[in-house]
Specification:
single chain; 166 residues; alpha/beta; Rossmann fold; 2 domains; four-stranded parallel beta sheet; two-stranded antiparallel sheet; 7 helices
Length: 166
């Protein structure tokens, strides 16, 4: 129970339902995403990873939502569907293979937002465990934004190589 500035008490809806003996039927949703249709094998691996994890945890039935599109895009069909489901309090847990599959930036913000609706995000593999699937640096999203094939990028890389080899 929390007390706000005006002396009123706020009781979470889940606590009221628990006290009244009302059982909430909320689902567990797995979310997987790849950037392009050429990565469908990775999409299948993510789905299997999520389902295996859920089975090990004893979660029962898991609904899987998938998208093919950039993690920077906010207009992914099933991502928007997931946001609607969470805001309607239909989801108790969202299981994802890696943090960046849900969103490239703002993962902690999404986690906090989901928690206000009583939804927990579980990450099967944290970024460090991903290894060979991604570049080791933390700047890869920025490199994607600016383009690794750009003339300026190649100039900077060749300049660094000259400095390092000297």
């Amino acid at each position: 129970m929390r007390q706000n500035y005006w002396g009123r008490r706020r009781i979470p809806e889940s606590e009221i339902k628990r006290t009244l003996g009302l059982k909430e039927e909320r689902m567990i949703v797995g979310y997987a995403r790849v950037s392009s249709s050429t990565q469908k094998d990775d999409l299948e691996r993510q789905k299997q990873l999520i389902l295996t994890y859920a089975k090990e945890k004893g979660y029962g039935e898991v609904q899987i939502l998938t998208d093919i599109g950039s993690g920077l895009s906010e207009m992914r069909k099933n991502f928007l569907k997931l946001l609607d489901m969470v805001s309607e309090r239909k989801v108790s847990k969202v299981v994802i293979a890696y943090e960046d599959r849900l969103t490239r930036f703002g993962f902690k913000t999404l986690r906090k937002l989901f928690s206000t609706f009583g939804t927990e995000i579980e990450v099967v593999n944290h970024e460090a465990a991903r290894g060979a699937c991604r570049r080791s640096d933390n700047y890869s999203p920025l490199l994607k934004l600016y383009g690794m094939r750009s003339h300026r990028y190649k100039e900077v890389v060749s300049g660094v190589r000259v400095l390092v080899s000297s």
